[in-house]
Amino acid sequence: MSLDISDLDMELAEISLVPDLDKCAILLDIDGTILDLAPSPQQVWVSPGLRRTLARLDDLTGGAVALVSGRSLADIDLIFSPLQLAAIGGHGAELRVAADAEPLMRAGPLSATLKRKLASVTEIGPGILAENKGYSLAIHYRLAPNKEAEVRTAVEAICAGAPPGSVEILPGKLVVEIKSAGINKADAVCELMSFAPFADRNPIFIGDDITDEPVFGIISRFGGLGFSVGRAFADANGHFDKPESVRAWLARIAAEGTGAAE
């Protein structure tokens, strides 16, 4: 399948790149990409329309739709329930190649002792929240954006006490996330693309944050395209303005595309 685009800054919601969906795979980050950011991670909302769109795309691609997230698989399944899809969780720590497949564990959980130390950063002030993702811990300051410098300095000081090379700090949109070193979304996507039904397909990846940037760098290996949300990335092929635009585009290709379910 050819995935040609002539204008990298086009309004993607007006373009149908993938009319033949049984030849492609669709890989989607969640927060800030297909879901709007909420005051806290627990407050995100998945509309019935988005569930229907994703289910339709999963049918048309023969199961080659995957959610690629920093959230754990258990959390992903909870917020999208009753829909279950192939997924990468924990920034690559977990991999499920099909909705009914047993997850592959690609890394161990972050140290409980380190998590407790990091959670103490919330003492800086109200509005700073700790989210335990199992394989990582996120410190959110969406409700206290003026505390960014203090939060980052405190996280860096705590992580400096961990064994050298054992953890990685990931800055994001009003969040600092700490995970075990050596796992990332890009490596997990490469592994996912070796399994049916993803193998030998052209993937389309959509993401919005720094943790998605490595995927933009490898997606062309599989003859695919990567698109960012909210801002341009050097290795991305184009970008959407906001999650609403991504949802509209996905709904359009779900309505117009053909594939395995036809």
Overview of the molecule:
This protein has 262 residues and is an alpha/beta fold. Mean pLDDT is 89; it is low at 1-16. α1 packs across α7. The strands form two sheets. The protein has an eight-stranded mixed beta sheet with strand order 5-4-3-2-1-10-11-12. It has a four-stranded antiparallel beta sheet with strand order 6-7-9-8, covered by helices on one side. The protein starts with 23 loop residues before the first strand and ends in a 6-residue tail after the last helix. It has helices at residues 48-60, 73-80, 112-119, 148-159, 185-192, 213-218, 243-256; strands spanning 24-28, 65-68, 86-89, 94-96, 104-105, 129-132, 136-140, 167-172, 175-180, 202-207, 225-229, 238-240. α1 (48-60) links the parallel β1 and β2 (65-68).
The total strand number stands at: 12
Low-confidence stretches: 1-16
Percentage of β-strand residues: 15-25%
Morphology: globular
Task: Name the helix and strand elements from N-terminus to C-terminus, one letter apiece.
Answer: EHEHEEEHEEHEEHEHEEH
- Major beta sheet, specifics? 8 strands, mixed
Strand order of the largest sheet: 5-4-3-2-1-10-11-12
Query: How many domains in all?
Result: 2
Classify the fold: give the CATH topology of the largest domain: Rossmann fold
Rg over C-alpha atoms, rounded to the nearest angstrom? 18 Å
Span between termini:
18 Å
CATH architecture of the largest domain: 3-Layer(aba) Sandwich
The CATH C-level name of the largest domain is: Alpha Beta
The pLDDT mean sits at 89
Number of helices: 7
Fourth-tier CATH superfamily name of the largest domain: HAD superfamily/HAD-like
Structural class: alpha/beta
Helical content, roughly? 25-40%
